[in-house]
Amino acid sequence: MSNVENIEAVTGSLSGGRFIIAGGGTGGHIFPAIAIANAIKELQPNAEILFVGASGKMEMEKVPQAGYNIKGLTIAGFERGSLIKNIWLPFKLIKSFLQVRSILKNFKPDAVIGVGGYSSFPVLRSAQGKRIPTFIHESNSFAGKSNILLGKHATKIFVANEGMERFFPADKIAITGNPVRKSIAGSNISKTEALAFFGLERKKPTVLVIGGSLGARSINEVIARHIGDFNPLGLQVIWQTGKTTAAKYLSKAKSLHNVWANDFINEMEKAYAAADLVVSRSGAMSVAELCVAKKPVIFVPFPYAAEDHQTVNAKYLVDRNAALMVKDDMVRTRLFNEITNLAKDKAKQEILANNIAVFAVKNADEKIATSILKTLAGSKN
Ligand SMILES: CC(=O)N[C@H]1[C@@H](OP(=O)(O)OP(=O)(O)OC[C@H]2O[C@@H](n3ccc(=O)[nH]c3=O)[C@H](O)[C@@H]2O)O[C@H](CO)[C@@H](O)[C@@H]1O
Predict the structure, then answer these.
(1) Which among 25, 84, 246, 285 could bridge 117 via Cys, Cβ 3.0 to 4.6 Å?
(2) Are 94 and 213 in the same domain?
(3) What domain range includes position 268?
């Protein structure tokens, strides 16, 4: 960080500061939140940070692993599949607002930062009701309904792309990019080291398969069907299955010497360092990380994401010759061929890697943390 001293000069009056970061549900919300928390701590080592998530969700495991405390709300989302399950929803919402009231009363935050996901809404809404400054990070090019509502009374809204005035008041928007974890953005792990970590061979081309933070059923089906076909082609595979289908695939995959498989990869910086090419969903953070990691990618957008934004994300890069794309309904017939073709074509890999790297943003975490601290210091002066 080049301007830590400057920041301290500006934010000195905040003396550490107390921050709540609210949100979660998927990795796409959790990991940028952790990146922002780390950047705040780097600028203000005395800052106190508390996360608020939803009980039973991924953040309750991943946030403590990153060294932060988290409180879980009883909140849940609307279940489209089963109306009966929604009977308790109003009660859960009321309970969550009561839980938030007590969290705010006890923790007394100077600011609340919302990153999207179930817990963001009650926490930011309650904070706004108490006139506590609120900040929002929206990683997608389409804002969700709750962020749009919260944006009206937020102090500042950090976004990845231009054109977000469709959703938020223009004067509150700051374009920062999406905050990629330092372990990835500042990684200097060598390929050899990374392959050794996964128990794979140093000289074989390596395909990394990731289905977003929860795994991707369509990608998994293709990889499972062809799992024995990679070795004869001289390829090895790092495969993240996601939790729901892990049991179905892991025992077979783990028995193969050229395959490393798990339901989740905690060491993504090593996975990127090991990979020659990547197959991935195109959620906002996966895309941001692949730009930073400079990898040739075949995207398979999740077709049911809001406003089909994963296709928008992937297409932006495909149109600039910076990635390949296979639509979800074509994976069965096309994905394995695309993988083997790209694996053979070193020149294409290089072009895609160079072109995707143009879109890398490495310091969004610092930009967001700096802006929050400066804004708060300004409002206290
Ligand atoms: C199905 C769905 O609604 N997906 C949304 C969700 O995706 P999802 O949670 O999959 O989010 P992203 O692709 O944005 O990010 C995934 C994150 O999980 C991490 N990771 C993933 C796999 C793994 O094994 N280990 C690991 O650490 C990645 O490094 C990345 O940091 O949030 C994104 C950001 O709001 C949205 O753009 C996606 O559309």
Answers:
(1) 25
(2) no
(3) 184-357
